[in-house]
Amino acid sequence: MAPRAPIGIFDSGIGGLTVANAIVSILPHETLFYFGDTAHVPYGGKSAETVIQYSNDIVSFLLNQGCKAIVVACNTASAAALASLRHTWPSVPIIGMEPAVKPASSATQTGVVGVLATRGTFSSERYANLVDRFGHGITVLENPCIGLVELIEAGLVDDAITENFLQQILRPMLDQGADTFVLGCTHYPLVRPLIERIIPPSAAIIDPAPAVARQLYRRLQHLSLLSDQRTDDHHFFVSGDLHAFHTMAKRFFLADFLLEQHLIY
């Protein structure tokens, strides 16, 4: 695989752009091929079998585009499909997400951590193992935030409706002493400004996207696959509405990109 080949990255929608931005910041010479599966967003309420099928189809598509590595920029897909993807393509570096329970357990002063994720993430063995390993001695409060991804995909990232929605999630956690909040879905950093209005300034918000970008850097460096020069524009693919995704991507992605619709199912 050539060092100047693109990096494949995918999510159920626009949430993975938070990870893409972290990658662009840390690896500015890399070209991204991003797939937003907006025809099937959100993944959080779907069965593990369905998410595995979607993920395998998307990764197959990205590898056929010549990608040298894959970033699963979706917590739900990482929880359900990461092991399957690595088994299917053992020679491809595949980096996934995980809710940042470990750093949260170190950051909390009150011993109470709020985790905002999806039902798919919370029900996964991957998440259960994280809590079992790093949740001792702390209280972990969980909320699947049902409906939040849809609000974000609709562009309501600074809307009173979304702020009221987050109030209902965060206030009970604050009342129970939470001082650290894990953004366990890549969509959720897009409403971080709303979260910061609700929680006190002393509270910590943990977004795992920069850690994922650093892990990608380490893997590519180890495999001598780091690019020394951008070869093309970032290329985005979506399975759903092209205009809606373009509007959001122009708003939130930090670099220029080409966009096309691609149906893989």
Mean pLDDT: 96
Strand order of the biggest β-sheet: 4-3-1-2-9-10
Beta-strand content estimate: 15-25%
Molecular shape: globular
- Class by alpha and beta content: alpha/beta
How many helices? The count is 11
CATH topology of the largest domain: Rossmann fold
pLDDT < 50 runs, ≥5 residues = none
Range of helix content: 40-55%
Secondary-structure element order, as H and E?
Answer: EHEHEHEHEHHEHHEHEHEHE
> Into how many domains do the coordinates divide?
2
Report the C-alpha radius of gyration, rounded: 18 Å
Summarize the structure in short.
This protein is an alpha/beta fold and 265 residues long. It is built from eleven helices and ten strands.
Question: Which terms summarize this structure?
Answer:
Rossmann fold, globular, 6-stranded parallel β-sheet
Write the layout of secondary structure elements.
Elements: E1 7-11, H1 17-26, E2 32-36, H2 48-64, E3 69-72, H3 75-88, E4 94-95, H4 101-107, E5 112-116, H5 119-122, H6 125-134, E6 139-143, H7 148-153, H8 160-175, E7 180-183, H9 192-198, E8 204-206, H10 209-222, E9 234-238, H11 242-252, E10 257-261
Parallel strand pairs: 1-2, 1-3, 2-9, 3-4, 5-6, 5-7, 7-8, 9-10
